[in-house]
Amino acid sequence: MSDLTAFALICSLTPSPEPSSSDLMAQHILDQFAAHGVVTSSARVVDHHVAPGVRKDMGDGDEWPVLREKILAADILVLSTPIWVGHPSSLAQRVMERLDADIAETDEEGRPVMAGKVAVVAVVGNEDGAHKTVADMMQGLNDIGFSLPSQGSTYWVGEAMQAVDFKDLAQVPDAVATTTAGVVRNAQHLATLLRRENFPLE
């Protein structure tokens, strides 16, 4: 069992409570974390007013600070995004832009504020682009200070130019389920190690 926490930030363009493939993929990941004793929570970005900008708080009703606090409180961030026209969703890009403010932020000991936190990426879509989307998200997350576990991404993409979504499947394909299990296992392992000993200051 574990006292770790995981927070999923879901970058679907579909507001709650409408079904969302990105939300469902994130939930599969969180369910596996929970089965290993990790405390989990999630939020859809679209349900919050996240203003454009590159500061921690853009004012005027900006709700990013609420989501940022949830990220800071968690050991593991699950970033789940759909593919749209071959790219991460616009909300996933906005999340990365808002996280950019934390590159210069440090904790009480002087480390980058996100150092010691683990991030994994989940992608869904019915078009090509999963590997590029993962690459874009992981590069940004690593720049911001998150640590990425071995094989720290999972995805499902349906047949191109068709209408079947991840949420329409009767069951998760074995290859996706196996990959997701590995993501959870590796992320929890890395987060446990970093909880015991964070990165050195010098």
From TrEMBL:
Residues 16-146 form the NADPH-dependent FMN reductase-like domain. SUPFAM superfamilies: Flavoproteins. One of its GO terms (molecular function) is oxidoreductase activity. Transmembrane segments: none annotated. InterPro entries: Flavoprotein-like_sf, FMN_Rdtase-like_dom. This is Flavodoxin family protein. It comes from Arthrobacter bussei.
